[in-house]
């Protein structure tokens, strides 16, 4: 504490002096000032390099030991705070001791049962061996009888496989004998059941007699085997088995089912007759006459426009894409084909066929329509409404067809179906555009057409102008050339109008020419005159 003079006074044990002289330190300072050359030998004591390295290693080891000790101590503390593993193991062992003894005792009868089963299996194997020996004996006796009737010249050096006739005959006899000795509790017809089919087919028909089982090997075998087959059939009493399965063809099976060519040809003829309704008309002969007339220029006039004989030649060749005026004439002719002349105003076709002019005017409004905040009150222009009412006079129409020219590269068919509230794309070149790209192109029809139907006074039902679903069937036959898309689109529209997507499957690249012949012949005769 400071005294009255402001100086601090301390007790002697707490006092020290910073200015005490040290002779050794003074000599060292003087030598440094004089520039004396010091060497290592002057400084004695301290640690060598080996000792320093050893100390570093010991420090590292000590650090590792500290970490290990900490982890062990923490584990032990946890065990002290929680449960001891040894105590827990002893408790579990005492609890399960009786169960383990019971399991050990139950193993003995299990192995006894296994031995009994093994004995039964050995007995069955012995019975199969005896049956096999009987078959070999019967085969040998049949060989001897056959050799006595008619010797066969066989080269012993090349004959390594038993006679197939004896193998088949032995199998038939053994099957008949097995069916006779079948237990009474089993159905005789289930010993060797006849196959059934899941395509709705049954086996109600008359079973043909088995008379040609061995007819390809030997004539003597043929006579004897016919007699044996008749005897076995009379003794066995083979009955007819009728399939009880549902005669409903599943969609997944029929989707990829490959039909016979004859069935496919009948289906194609049925589709063509449903479109053209002309009976047994010789279209190839009439088409030959039309080709001769096409050498002289002429013009075909319709309500949708006029086309020249050169346009018909382009349809036949299909070297380039058809122009829109030709496609419009084909669509107008399709409408005339599918609309019966005797139909009244109340019996109009439920399908309506639009032209490319309507498609062009309709898609131009989509930009303005998409920006409209109140789509229910969107006003469609008067020319578009008048064109629609002219093309679709039927108030009960539910399907609207029109061709769609994508970027002036290839054609697709569009079907707007109000009954299923969906849009079907009839595309014969699926590889040119992905589903996402195609949906973007067809989106104006899916979102705007419901509001357009409501605007023109057509029934929308309970849909509340919701966007239509877009479908792009993969089962539509694909064309090899893009230039075939225009005429294929027209033909797909015709087929879909009479039979849906399944009818479109009949128009394939191999029979496209025959449908083109029918289309051009009927167009010429409807516009110009008979051929």
UniProtKB/TrEMBL annotation:
The keyword DNA-binding does not apply. Keywords: Hydrolase, Protease. GO terms for molecular function: cysteine-type peptidase activity. The keyword Protease applies. SUPFAM superfamilies: Cysteine proteinases (SSF54001). InterPro entries: Papain-like_cys_pep_sf, Peptidase_C48_C. Pfam families: Peptidase_C48 (PF02902). Transmembrane segments: none annotated. GO terms for biological process: proteolysis. Gene3D superfamilies: Adenoviral Proteinase, Chain A. Residues 329-527 form the Ubiquitin-like protease family profile domain. Belongs to the peptidase C48 family. This is Ubiquitin-like protease family profile domain-containing protein. It comes from Brassica carinata (Ethiopian mustard).
